[in-house]
Amino acid sequence: xxxxxxxxxxxxxxxxxxxxxxxxxxxxxxxxxxxxxxxxxxxxxxxxxxxxxxxxxxxxxxxxxxxxxxxxxxxxxxxxxxxxxxxxxxxxxxxxxxxxxxxxxxxxxxxxxxxxxxxxxxxxxxxxxxxxxxxxxxxxxxxxxxxxxxxxxxxxxxxxxxxxxxxxxxxxxxxxxxxxxxxxxxxxxxxxxxxxxxxxxxxxxxxxxxxxxxxxxxxxxxxxxxxxxxxxxxxxxxxxxxxxxxxxxxxxxxxxxxxxxxxxxxxxx
Length: 269
What we know:
By secondary structure, this protein is an alpha+beta fold. 41% of the residues lie in helices and 14% in strands. It is built from 10 helices and 6 strands, in the order H-H-H-H-H-H-H-E-E-H-H-E-E-E-E-H.
């Protein structure tokens, strides 16, 4: 057998879709599509989403069934961003087939996913989550005997320097300036404030006194690397036997793991 060499061939201007190589498909996604079709997923989700779209005006959006299939791709392949999901789907013929996108069409980009995500409320996403779990239960894929609860701290999209006091609405700089003047430092500079803040004995910042005006639901928390940020805690409940996700929620970062685990246990029971 002779050695094949890569050639820089010029692409033809027109290529018939019948001549394009077909994807062999992916066994997992093919089976998943069969299960969704058997359960009538597309008709169900289109009816559920209809109230959130205009009946006649505007360009048709991504079909809800395609959008939620892309979300499933992100879940099964561990992709956390819409940009990453869109790229993965555009790069795979088998995933385009899973989405139902013809070979001569492009898969939805991340901006289209964002528009659909912003249009559909959280309740719709929760109902799809339950729909998929119901399929898993009916097909005896979900055991439900042993569940594991895990949580992690996620940094909020808000800066610590933006926090304000709840009682006086002072920002951090104004607060430090007032304390510094109380210690006899008149007209402190930014460097004076940093030095004063570094050396003062009581530097504790509590959630009872401080909050972020742009993200009041976030909480001041110590991260795993020892730094302090505004943050949330994300909790996942997983079926140990099947690795299926049973619940996912985001709570304030100052909620204890034991408190949330007990709540999850009560819900399972």
